[in-house]
Design brief:
The complex is a heterodimer of chains A (672) and B (349). Chain A is an alpha+beta fold and 672 residues long. Chain A folds into five domains: 2-40, no CATH class; 114-162 and 357-373; 173-354, no CATH class; 374-441, no CATH class; 465-618, MetI-like (MetI-like fold), CATH 1.10.3720.10. Helices cover 39% and strands 24% of the residues of chain A. In chain A, strands 6, 9, 10, 13, 15 and 19 form a six-stranded mixed beta sheet that branches. In chain A, strands 7, 8, 11, 12, 14 and 18 form a six-stranded antiparallel beta sheet that branches. In chain A, α11 (461-497) packs parallel to α14. The two termini of chain A are 47 Å apart. With 349 residues, chain B is mostly helical. Chain B is built from 13 helices and three strands; from the N terminus they run ααβββααααααααααα. In chain B, β2 and β3 (79-84) form a beta hairpin. Classes of the chains: A alpha+beta (672), B mainly alpha (349). Chain A binds chain B through residues 75, 510-511, 514-516, 518-519, 522-523, 525-527, 530, 599, 603, 606-607, 610-613, 625, 629, 632-633, 636, 639-640, 643, 646-647, 650-651, 653-655, and chain B through 15, 18-19, 22-23, 26-27, 29-30, 166-167, 169-172, 174-175, 178-179, 181-182, 186, 193, 280, 283-284, 287-288, 298-299, 302, 305, 309, 314, 318, 321-322, 325-326, 329.
Chain lengths: 672, 349
C-alpha cells in the first residue's frame, strides 16, 4: 500500500497527460508504466464491516463434548444401549408380536418359556417336576387328573411310605392310639375300637383274623397292651344285656397275625342259636407315661356260610388301611358305604393311618405337548358345520362316528370321532366327542412358541410385559416432564429472587415435602380412583420438589457470578438472565435428576401394585410384577422374568444416569 | 443452640399439625365407613363414636343433618339415629381429644372398638425389631465395604465392590425378596416362605427373620458403602492428609485418626436419618412376607378403598409415619452440629 501511494505521488509529480498511468523507475533506473483502470478496484464488502473472523476449524459444542465424555464411560454406554433396546422392544413388541393380550384362553395357560425345540432341556417349554407327584400304577403315569401321559418324559419312580391318606396309596396299618392319661386309673378308662353290630347264627363257624404289627414305628408312641373281645346281646328276662367276652384273660403284647374262634368263645359262655346283636372290638390299656398304640393292617371276619360272609361280614372286615382311614366311599350298598368299613368302627381313641405304601415320581413335563397335543373335546354342531363347510372333513350326523372322514389332513383339527349324541329340543343339535389336535382347534397352523411362556390366562408374557412397561414408561416420561417444568420454574423463581419470595416458597415445599409420599398417594387414590391420571397427579404432586430444590441451589450458586452481573449491567431482563445465562449452567444436573426420575416412577408404581393399590384395569409393569407373585412356587418364570427385566432395567438406568451426570457436568468440560 | 433446638421442635409441631389437619380433613371428606359386626357391636361402636364426638345420636329423624348413617335399636327398644358430624366439627373434636386425652379414636374395621393406639403398639415391636436388626447388620458391613473399596481405589477389589454396590442400589428390595424367596424358600427350602405365625417354634421364628433382614439390608449396606467410599476417597485426596503423612504418621494412623473421622462428618447424620426413617417400616416387604407390622396395618386399614376404610386407624398410622419422618429430619440437622463443631446450625452469618 505504501509503495503504491509513493508511486502515485511520484507519477503525478511527473505531470503525465493521463492521470491513470503511473510511471516508476526500478532499482536499475529503468522506467515502467502501470495503467490502473476503474475495474481494477472492487469493494471487498459493501454492507457488512467485519472486525473479527470466525475460527476456521469448528468449535466443539457443549453437547458434542458431553457426548464424547459419555462415550468414554463404558458401563454407561452399555447401560444406554440396553435401555435403547428395551425402548425399542417396548415400542415394537406390542405392535408386531402377533399374540393378543386381550383374549383369555385357558387351554394355553402356564406354558413354560420356549425358545428351542423340546428335548434340549433348557428353555424348551418343558418343566422338570422334582416335587414328588403320586404315581398311578393303573395308567402307568403321574397323577392323571393333573398330568397328561404323553407329555411326560424322563420318568423316575420312587417308593415311599406315607402316614396320610392319598388316592394312590396302598395298604398300611390302622394306628389305634390310646391317648396318654393324666388323671385316674388306666383300668377305668379302657380305649376301645369296636365294629358295627350284626346278627350271627352260632350254627355256623365264625373266625376273626386280626393282623397285628409289632415292628419299628415312628412318632412318640409305645406299643400298648390289648385284649380282643366279642360283645353279644343276651335276652335275659326281657332285659337287654350286653355281655363282653374276652378271647384272652390277660392284656397281650403279642403283635402277630392272630385268628380267634368266635363260635367257640360264645358257645363256651353258654350262648347258642341266633344272636341278634354281635360286635367285635379291641380294648387298649392307656398309659400314664406315653401315648400307646396298637397297629393292625387287617381285620377279617369269616363265616362258614358263604352268603352271610358276603352280606354281613363285609360290613366289618377290611384289609386296606389307606382306604379305610382316608374314608373313601367306594360304593354304596343299601345306603351303607360297604367298603369303608372302618368308618363304621367306633372308637374313643384315635384312628390314624400308618405306613401306607405309595409310589411317587419325578419327571419332565412338556407343557406344549400337553396343551397342543391330542385332547378329547366335545364338538358342537356349529363347529362341525364350519369344518365341513371349509372342506376339512365330512361327517354325517345321522350315521355317527363311522361316517367321519378327514379331507384336508393339514387343516382339520379332528382326528377321530369317538361318540355321537343327539340333543333333541326346539333346535335339534348334536355333540360329537372327538379326539382333536388342540393347536389346530385353537386356530394355529403349527404349535406356537412363547419365548417367555404364558400367564394364568394363557396370555403371552413377552407381549404383556412390554405392553405393561409401555404404560409404566409413559407414566414415567409424562410425570418427569411435568416435574421438570414445574420444578425449574418454581426453583428458578425461588432461587433467583431470594428474600421473602424464597422464604415463603421454601416453607411451602418444606411442608408439602414432609408429607409422606404414601399419604399423598393414598389420598389421591381414595378421592380419584386408581387410574393413570391419578397416578400421574400424585407422582407430580411430590416429584417436582426435588427438581425445584436442585434448581434453587444452582441459582444461588450462579446468580452472583460476574458473568451474570455483566449481563445485568448491559440491561438484560430477569427472564433473559434466568433462561439464557443461569439455567443452561445447571441444566446438566437437572437433566440427570429427571432421567433418574423415570425409574423412580416405575419403582413407585410397582410398590403400589405390591400393596394391592396398583392401577386398575391396565396391566402396568408393576401390576404384572405384583400379580404373578402368587405363582412363585408353581410357575416361577412368571415372577422371575419380569423381576429380572426390572433388575436389568434399573441397573441400566442407574449406569446411564451416572454417566450422563458426569458427561453433563460443566465443570468437567474439556477435562479429558 | 438450645434456642435453635426449641425453634426447630416448635416448627416440627406446626408442620405436623398442618399435615395431619390436611390429611384428616381430606380423609373425612370421603363417605364415612360403616363398622362390621353384629347389631350390638355396631351400636357399641356408634355410641363410642358419639362419645368421642365424631357422630351425633338422636332418637328421632333430623333432616337438617342429612341422611342418618345407620338406624339401630338398642336393648331397651329405643331407636338411635346416628348422624355424621360436619367435617370441621369432627376435626376440632379430634384435635381436642388428642390434646386433652391423648385419645386417637377406635378402630372401625380391622379390630372393631379397639383403641387405635393399642393396635399400633401391638404391631410396632415387629417392625422395629426387623429394622433394628437391619441397621445392626448394615452399618458395620456397609462401612467396612466402603472403607475397603476406598483404600483399594481403582484396584480389582474396588471394582468388584463398586459393581455389587451399583447392582444392589439399583435393584428394588421387592425384586431382591422375589429372588431370595425363589432361591432359599421355594427351591432351597431353608427358610419359611411366609412370616412364621405366633405359635411357631423359636427356631422357625428366627429363620423367619432371614429373608426380610437380608432383602432390606442388601440395599442399605450398598447405600452406606457408596457414601463411605465417596467421602473417604475425597478426604484421602485432601492436603491435610498429605500433611499428616509428611509429619511422620503411618498410613494406618493417618487413615484411622484423620481420614475416617473427617469422612464420617457428612455420613453420620445421614445414618441417623436412615435408621429413624426405617422405623416407619417397609410396607412392601411386610405385605410380601406377611409380616404383621405397621405397614400391613396401613394396607389393612385402607381395606378395599371404598366402603371399609378404617379412618381412625389410618389417621394414626399416617401420623406415626409423618412424625417419624419429621423427627428423622430434626435429628439429622442437630447431629451435624454435634459431630462437627465447625457447623453451627441456625447460626446467623
Amino acid at each position: 500500500m505504501d509503495l503504491l501511494i509513493l508511486v502515485s505521488e511520484w507519477g503525478q509529480r511527473n505531470n503525465m497527460e493521463k492521470n491513470n498511468v503511473f510511471v516508476y523507475k526500478d532499482s536499475e533506473l529503468k522506467e515502467h508504466a502501470i495503467t490502473i483502470e476503474q475495474s481494477d478496484f472492487e469493494q471487498v464488502k459493501i454492507e457488512k464491516r467485519s472486525f473479527e473472523r470466525k475460527f476456521e476449524d469448528k468449535p466443539t459444542t457443549f453437547a458434542k463434548d458431553a457426548f464424547k465424555r459419555f462415550l468414554k464411560n463404558k458401563s454407561s454406554v452399555a447401560g444406554g444401549i440396553i435401555l435403547g433396546l428395551i425402548l425399542l422392544l417396548v415400542i415394537f413388541v406390542p405392535m408386531f408380536s402377533g399374540f393378543s393380550t386381550d383374549a383369555i384362553t385357558y387351554d394355553e395357560k402356564f406354558l413354560e418359556p420356549k425358545l428351542f425345540n423340546a428335548g434340549t432341556g433348557f428353555w424348551d417349554g418343558t418343566k422338570y417336576i422334582d416335587d414328588p407327584v403320586t404315581y398311578d400304577e393303573a395308567t402307568e403315569s403321574p397323577d392323571p387328573t393333573y398330568y397328561r401321559k404323553e407329555a411326560v418324559s424322563e420318568l423316575k419312580i420312587f417308593e415311599g411310605y406315607s402316614n396320610s391318606y392319598a388316592v394312590y396309596n396302598k395298604g398300611g396299618y390302622v394306628r389305634f392310639v390310646a391317648p396318654q392319661i393324666f388323671s385316674g386309673e388306666p383300668q377305668d378308662r379302657l380305649y376301645k375300637i369296636e365294629s358295627a353290630y350284626f346278627t350271627l347264627d352260632l350254627a355256623n363257624q365264625y373266625n376273626m383274623e386280626v393282623g397285628f404289627y409289632g415292628g419299628e414305628t415312628d412318632g412318640d408312641y409305645k406299643f400298648g397292651s390289648y385284649k380282643t373281645y366279642v360283645i353279644a346281646y343276651e335276652n335275659a328276662e326281657k332285659k337287654v344285656v350286653l355281655h363282653k367276652y374276652y378271647f384272652e384273660d390277660e392284656f397281650s403284647q403279642d403283635f402277630t397275625t392272630k385268628t380267634y374262634d368266635v363260635t367257640k368263645l360264645l358257645t363256651d359262655n353258654g350262648l347258642s342259636g341266633s344272636i341278634e346283636y354281635v360286635a367285635f372290638g379291641i380294648d387298649q390299656l392307656p398309659s400314664k407315661e406315653y401315648n400307646s398304640q396298637v397297629l393292625f393292617d387287617k381285620i377279617v371276619v369269616t363265616s362258614s356260610d358263604a352268603t352271610e360272609q358276603e352280606e354281613i361280614f363285609d360290613i366289618v372286615s377290611f384289609t386296606d388301611a389307606n382306604y379305610q382311614v382316608g374314608g373313601v366311599k367306594k360304593e354304596k350298598r343299601d345306603g351303607i358305604e360297604v367298603k369303608n368299613n372302618l368308618a363304621l368302627w367306633t372308637s374313643n381313641g384315635n384312628k390314624f393311618l400308618y405306613h401306607a405304601y405309595y409310589k411317587y415320581c419325578n419327571f419332565r413335563y412338556d407343557t406344549y405337548l400337553a396343551a397342543y397335543g391330542h385332547v378329547t373335546r366335545v364338538i358342537t354342531k356349529d363347529k362341525m358345520r364350519e369344518y365341513i363347510k371349509a372342506k376339512y372333513c365330512t361327517y354325517d350326523p345321522s350315521v355317527g362316528p363311522s361316517s367321519f372322514k378327514v379331507l384336508n389332513e393339514e387343516k382339520c383339527p379332528i382326528v377321530e370321532v369317538i361318540s355321537h349324541k343327539d340333543i333333541s329340543g326346539t333346535f335339534p343339535d348334536y355333540e360329537a366327542t372327538c379326539i382333536v389336535l388342540n393347536y389346530k382347534y385353537l386356530g394355529y397352523d403349527k404349535p406356537p412358541k412363547y419365548i417367555f411362556g404364558t400367564t394364568d390366562q394363557g396370555k403371552d408374557l413377552f407381549t404383556l410385559m412390554f405392553k405393561g412397561l409401555r404404560t409404566s414408561l409413559l407414566l414415567g416420561l409424562i410425570t418427569s416432564a411435568v416435574n421438570f417444568i414445574i420444578g425449574i420454574i418454581w426453583g428458578a423463581i425461588s432461587g433467583y429472587f431470594g428474600g421473602w419470595v424464597d422464604i415463603f416458597m421454601e416453607r411451602f415445599t418444606d411442608i408439602l415435602g414432609r408429607v409422606p409420599w404414601m399419604v399423598i398417594m393414598t389420598l389421591c387414590i381414595l378421592h380419584l380412583g386408581r387410574n393413570f391420571a391419578t397416578f400421574a397427579l400424585a407422582l407430580c404432586l411430590t416429584g417436582w420438589m426435588g427438581v425445584a430444590g436442585t434448581t434453587r441451589a444452582q441459582f444461588y450458586r450462579f446468580k452472583g457470578r460476574e458473568y451474570v452481573l455483566a449481563s445485568r449491567t448491559l440491561g438484560a431482563s430477569d427472564v433473559r438472565l434466568i433462561f439464557r445465562h443461569i439455567l443452561p449452567n445447571s441444566l446438566g444436573t437437572l437433566v440427570t435428576s429427571t432421567v433418574f426420575m423415570i425409574p423412580g416412577v416405575i419403582y413407585s408404581e410397582s410398590t403400589l401394585a405390591y400393596l394391592n393399590l396398583g392401577m386398575n384395569g391396565s396391566n402396568t409393569f408393576g401390576v404384572i410384577l405384583a400379580d404373578y407373585r402368587q405363582y412363585l412356587s408353581s410357575a416361577t418364570y412368571l415372577v422371575m422374568i419380569p423381576a429380572v427385566l426390572m433388575a436389568i432395567m434399573m441397573v441400566s438406568f442407574n449406569l446411564f444416569g451416572n454417566g450422563l451426570r458426569d458427561a453433563l457436568n460443566p465443570s468437567l468440560k474439556g477435562s479429558d | 443452640m438450645r434456642r435453635y433446638v426449641l425453634k426447630r421442635i416448635i416448627l416440627i409441631l406446626i408442620t405436623a399439625l398442618i399435615i395431619l389437619s390436611l390429611t384428616f380433613i381430606l380423609i373425612k371428606l370421603l363417605p364415612p365407613g360403616k363398622p362390621a359386626g353384629t347389631d350390638d357391636q355396631r351400636l357399641a361402636f356408634y355410641l363410642k363414636q358419639v362419645g368421642l364426638g365424631y357422630m351425633i345420636d338422636f332418637d328421632i329423624e333430623m333432616p337438617q343433618y342429612g341422611t342418618p348413617l345407620e338406624i339401630l335399636k338398642d336393648g331397651a327398644g329405643r331407636l338411635h339415629y346416628f348422624y355424621v358430624r360436619p367435617v370441621m366439627e369432627q376435626y376440632f373434636v379430634w384435635i381436642k381429644n388428642i390434646v386433652t386425652k391423648w385419645d386417637w379414636g377406635t378402630s372401625t374395621i380391622v379390630a372393631v372398638n379397639q383403641s387405635c393406639m393399642l393396635i399400633i403398639a401391638e404391631r410396632l415391636p415387629v417392625t422395629i425389631s426387623i429394622n433394628l436388626i437391619v441397621s445392626a447388620i448394615a452399618v458395620p458391613i456397609g462401612f467396612g465395604l466402603g472403607i475397603w473399596a476406598a483404600l483399594k481405589k481403582n484396584k480389582l477389589t474396588d471394582h468388584i465392590i463398586s459393581t455389587i454396590i451399583v447392582l444392589f442400589v439399583s435393584i428394588p428390595s421387592f425384586i431382591v425378596i422375589v429372588f431370595l424367596l425363589v432361591l432359599f424358600a421355594y427351591k432351597g427350602k431353608f427358610v419359611p416362605t411366609q412370616w412364621p405365625s405366633m405359635q411357631a417354634t423359636p427356631k422357625e421364628k428366627a429363620l423367619g427373620y432371614i429373608i426380610p433382614v437380608v432383602s432390606l439390608s442388601a440395599g442399605t449396606i450398598c447405600a452406606y458403602a457408596r457414601w463411605v467410599r465417596a467421602e473417604l476417597t475425597e478426604v484421602m485426596a485432601s492436603e491435610f492428609l498429605l500433611l499428616a503423612r509428611t509429619k511422620g504418621l503411618t498410613r494406618t494412623q493417618s487413615i484411622v485418626r484423620h481420614a475416617l473421622r473427617n469422612s464420617l462428618v457428612p455420613i453420620f447424620p445421614m445414618l441417623i436419618g436412615e435408621i429413624i426413617g426405617a422405623l416407619s417400616g417397609s410396607m412392601v416387604l411386610e405385605q410380601l412376607y406377611g409380616i404383621p407390622g405397621i405397614g400391613t396395618l396401613y394396607i389393612k386399614a385402607l381395606g378395599d378403598l371404598k366402603s371399609n376404610i378404617d379412618f381412625n386407624l389410618l389417621m394414626v398410622d399416617m401420623a406415626l409415619v409423618t412424625m417419624i419422618g419429621l423427627a428423622a429430619g430434626l435429628l439429622v440437622d442437630l447431629s451435624y452440629g454435634f459431630i462437627d463443631p465447625r457447623i453451627r446450625m441456625g447460626a446467623k452469618k
